[in-house]
Design goal:
This protein has 193 residues and is of the alpha/beta class. The chain is built from 7 helices and 9 strands, in the order E-E-H-E-H-E-H-E-E-H-H-E-E-E-H-H.
Amino acid sequence: MPKRILHSTPKHDGFRMPGEFEPQEKIYMLWPQRPDNWRNGAKPAQRAFAEVAKTIRQFEPVTVLASPEQFSNCRNMLPPEITVLEMTSNDAWVRDCGPTFLVDDKGSLRACDWKFNAWGGLTDGLYCPWDQDDLVARKICELEHADSYRTEDFVLEGGSIHVDGEGTVMTTEMCLLSTGRNPSMTKNRLEKN
């Protein structure tokens, strides 16, 4: 079973986030279903997600994660060359709630398992509960047999950062310093970390 690394950092252990443009092995997607976030029972969103998955599959493997209630529907909408696995979640944004993968110069893989709270928790978040979305990164790390760094004291969505693979991270104060995410964090502390 993969380890959860709590008392170290990727940098200390020789890992880095690859640049957004670097080659990757596969894509994970979450299947939409929430009637409060997606209109018409999420049917238009599901058709769009299916088309996106099929397009990406032309270039690399795709794994779509669907709830127990949506597994059959998802499997029926996607061709057999796309893997569909059952996984409980609260919404469909794996880029935000899933792991951020890391590599080292030996070819080893690890991940960041950011604490996720639906873009602001009870203060200004989009939905509640988000507990299953907060578990998605850990579940994917287990599928990939990747050890992970869990950030219990720091909320971040994977889509709120952009990296160049050389240590530069671009983000916005609005995301990382919002009162619903990291109310005790200061800009200086964030920039140092």
